[in-house]
Amino acid sequence: MPLIVPLRSALRPLERFRLRTGDYPAALAQLVPSQLKELPIDPWSGNPLCYKRIHPAADAQHRAFLLYGVGANLTDDGGIAPVNPSNRYYVLTQPNLSDGKPGVGFDFVLNDQPR
Predict the structure, then answer these.
(1) What tens digit of pLDDT does each residue of 68-78 get?
(2) What CA–CA distance (Å, rounded) separates 70 from 88?
(3) Helical H runs in 11-67?
(4) Please, what is the end-to-end C-alpha distance for the chain in angstroms?
(5) Nearest alpha-carbon partner for 34 in 25, 45, 42
(6) pTM, two decimal places
(7) Which of 42, 73, 99, 112 is 20 to 30 A off residue 50, Cα-Cα?
């Protein structure tokens, strides 16, 4: 799916940065220009992708960061992904049953794992 290409384009540079420095960057901008020519653009908002560091012990999936796009509702919901990541394409593109808006309350988190 073409929408996830910008999200994926930042994952390898994030890993390379971690391998080189021992940790992930505090901000995605630290990858420019050494790892990325420019910040990847969120296909929904047209702005740079959202990236935030999180403490692995505080995350159910033990992630050190979240990398995500805002999704079809164009709102940064803080990296909240649908409960079932395998349904994320549907959730982000189909109307929410309660108010008819697509993807309300969710972001498109690339480094989300099935629960």
Answers:
(1) 888 777 888 88
(2) 12
(3) 11-21
(4) 22
(5) 25
(6) 0.77
(7) 99
